[in-house]
Write a structure and sequence with these properties.
Elements: E1 6-12, H1 16-27, E2 34-41, H2 47-57, E3 62-67, H3 72-81, E4 87-92, E5 96-97, H4 101-111, E6 115-125, E7 131-135, E8 157-159, H5 160-166, H6 177-188, E9 190-202, H7 212-227, E10 236-241, E11 256-257, E12 260-261, H8 262-272, E13 278-282, H9 286-294, H10 314-329, E14 335-339, H11 348-361, E15 365-372, E16 377-380, E17 383-386, E18 401-411, E19 426-430, H12 442-458
Parallel strand pairs: 1-2, 1-4, 2-3, 6-9, 10-13, 10-14, 15-19
Antiparallel strand pairs: 4-8, 5-9, 6-7, 6-8, 11-12, 14-18, 15-18, 16-17
Helix pairs in contact: 6-7, 7-11
Length: 459
């Protein structure tokens, strides 16, 4: 066989149920100049026997690499090392290709030598192969500019020389190796998306993508390594707004949650963040100020009462703090983080991730969000009208929405020139529902107490 134009790398681990459909989709392409390298990473089901039959039937087209459970990143690297194609495209054993994916994507790379990677839209299917939805990705440069969300790792075609330049997949990662690869890749090379659905992605309970907590932890570690912010490189100020008035009983910042006042949770986590140079509590209340100092925050001033009413936006509070620091100390931060007291379960790693995200993607701001799959409505001409959906779908079929949880806002101070801390480009970090709890009612406070109690019982 002559050197192939494209190498398809199929990674397989105990997905015998779907393997035939996957391999057949690779074999039935409207494109001839390709090879298939299948990596069996320690499968204990019928996978080895299925692969043996395919290898016997297509000895010149298929190459088998057998490993002993090394993980997806290492399996992908091994498959690519065993391949010879100029272009590389990955496929997981539970997914499958449209018959035109090689033709369309390889032609695009042929015609655009400046592009290092091309990827397409896709269909989502369930365990049984039933179509769930069409995932249309936003057009780079026209509809989206921030490259903080990688496409599917499977179905993206890239040049071998680009793969070599970024060092392949990080084998130390159990999760998010595709995010790591994407971030390294887009720092060096241009990418392009084609708005045609050219593959089928299976979403089921066995997918690695359902392991949310370790996935998010892995992504935070990757961002920390890539951002590589050295202490002192940037002056970073954290502001904790804490007024005396609250919408529930008493001074919310001083309400006891577990063994300490609510404000202590935010101050303690902010102090753990090594990237923060200064931590200032902006309050109009002397009692809150004393408690904040006791837990290690600066309180260089009391906020004027006119900036402590419910109608005052956070922009005015931030501007007051920055004006004070510039006038009294001649000190101006490069980055500001606003950390809100009513979110007691945000952690240092969330604050650090938000700062790293701002640095990596150079957005104007980064906000903390949580997934929200509920239906939202607004008043309309004939009663209520849907806000977040056009067609009422089952939960598994709906597009995930993201709700601002109010915990963390990281931004560039120059955004305030427009009167808005967010600016034009907004990045995000994802927090789970428990971490995102925002106390706005007595019920919320009761719920926070139950979470604290549960954590104390575990420890």
């Amino acid at each position: 066989m002559n050197k192939p134009k494209v190498s398809i790398i199929i990674t397989a681990h105990n997905y015998a149920k779907y393997l035939k459909e996957c391999i057949d989709s690779a074999l039935n392409q409207n494109f001839d100049n390709y090879e298939i390298v299948i990596v069996d990473d320690g499968s204990t089901d019928e996978t080895p026997r299925i692969l043996k039959r395919y290898k016997k039937r297509y000895p010149r087209k298929i190459k088998i690499v057998t490993l002993n459970g090394v993980g997806l990143a290492a399996a992908s690297n091994a498959g690519i090392k065993a391949s010879k194609g100029e272009y590389i495209i990955r496929l997981d054993a539970d997914d499958y290709f449209d018959e035109n994916i090689l033709l369309v994507e390889s032609n695009y790379l042929d015609r655009h030598p400046e592009i290092g990677m091309v990827y397409a839209d896709y269909f989502e299917i369930d365990d049984e192969g039933v179509l769930i939805s069409y995932k249309r990705l936003m057009k780079l440069g026209k509809e989206i500019k921030t490259l903080d969300r990688p496409p599917l790792a499977a179905g993206a075609m890239y040049r071998r020389k680009c793969y070599d330049a970024v060092g392949g997949y990080n084998e130390a990662l159990r999760y998010q190796e595709d995010y790591d690869f994407w971030t390294k890749f887009t720092k060096k090379f241009k990418v392009h998306n084609i708005n045609l659905p050219l593959m089928y992605y299976r979403r089921h309970s066995g997918s690695m993508s359902t392991n949310m907590k370790p996935k998010m932890a892995a992504r935070r570690d990757i961002k920390k390594r890539i951002a590589n912010i050295k202490i002192g490189d940037h002056k970073i100020l954290a502001i904790v707004p804490a007024r005396a008035k609250s919408r529930i009983k008493g001074k919310l910042a001083l309400r006891k949650l577990g063994r300490k006042p609510l404000i202590a949770y935010t101050i303690e986590e902010a102090k753990k963040c090594k990237l923060i140079d200064r931590l200032i509590v902006s309050t109009d209340d002397e009692e809150i100020a004393e408690v904040a100092k006791r837990y290690g925050a600066e309180v260089p001033f009391l906020r004027p009462k006119k900036l402590a009413s419910f109608g005052v936006g956070i922009e005015a509070v931030v501007k007051h703090t920055l004006d004070y620091l510039k006038k009294e100390e001649g000190w101006t931060p490069d980055i500001v983080a606003v950390l809100h007291v009513p979110n007691p379960f945000k952690k240092e790693e969330h604050i650090t991730e938000a700062i790293n995200t701002l640095m990596i993607y150079d957005t104007d701001s980064v906000i903390s969000v949580t997934e929200d799959e509920h239906f939202f409505w607004k008043p309309g001409k004939h009663g209520l009208e849907p806000v977040t959906f056009r067609k009422r779908l089952l939960k598994k079929d709906r597009e995930t929405m993201y709700r601002e949880n109010g915990a963390i806002y990281v931004f560039k101070p120059e955004n305030l020139k427009t009167g808005d801390i967010l600016g034009n480009s907004v990045g995000n970090i994802l927090m789970d529902k428990e971490e995102s709890l925002h106390i706005e009612s007595e019920f919320d406070f009761w719920l926070a107490k139950q979470i604290i109690k549960k954590h104390n019982e575990k420890n």
